[in-house]
Amino acid sequence: MATFVKNTATDIIQTFAAFTLQRWKILKELWYLMMLRNSCRLLGQEAESIPGIIGRKYGKVVKILDLSYNKLRTLNGLYSFEKLEELILDNNQLGDDVEIPEMAHLHTLTLNKNRISFRYV
């Protein structure tokens, strides 16, 4: 039984790993995207920004985006998220210089445990 479970889990992981963002056509109706504790690597370095492919693929449909527990320093990749209503950015590396793009539908923004001092408030 344990071997079966291990093999099944391995198969699932391998199958999932075979997917790429370009092949996820089944996710056209996606409205919630959670990307907790990612360690995206771009050019051998940990990503400190949101990869543009995510915005291009899902920006027109996602309403809730949770990017907590990453190492984000910039929000440049958010400009494509036109329907975003809730943005969760807790536990990142965002500082006082962060620029939050204008989002007409956004009603909830959380920035807990970042490097923002709120000294200008």
Automatic annotation (TrEMBL):
Task: Identify the domain of life.
Answer: Eukaryota
Gene3D superfamilies per record: Ribonuclease Inhibitor
Q: Which SUPFAM superfamilies match?
A: L domain-like
- Which InterPro entries does this entry report, sorted A to Z? LRMDA (IPR043313), LRR_dom_sf (IPR032675)
Q: Which PANTHER family match?
A: LEUCINE-RICH MELANOCYTE DIFFERENTIATION-ASSOCIATED PROTEIN (PTHR46282)
What protein name is recorded for this chain?
Answer: Uncharacterized protein
Organism from which the protein derives: Desmophyllum pertusum
